[in-house]
Amino acid sequence: MSRELEVEVAPTCISSGYCRNFAPDVFGAKEDKKSYVKTSPVVETPRLLEAFESCPVEAISAKDAATGEEVFP
Ligand code: SF4
Known about the structure:
The chain has helices at 18-22, 46-54; strands at 4-9, 27-29, 35-37, 42-43, 60-64, 70-72. By secondary structure, the chain is of the alpha+beta class.
């Protein structure tokens, strides 16, 4: 069964847009082009994990919504 994840984007985001390309349903762009999380918690999917891994500055973090366990990074 898939887990639900609490996702956060840190202020260190450099507006690359990669996470939004991989998971546009989860990540949106603010006026300054930095990403924000549109909806959380979200169901863990391979595509979502690709979005996390795409971030060049490791600005994305995620925890298991049920247990609080750190899932990413
Ligand atoms: S991949 Fe990282 S740096 Fe790029 S927009 Fe997303 S959070 Fe920001």
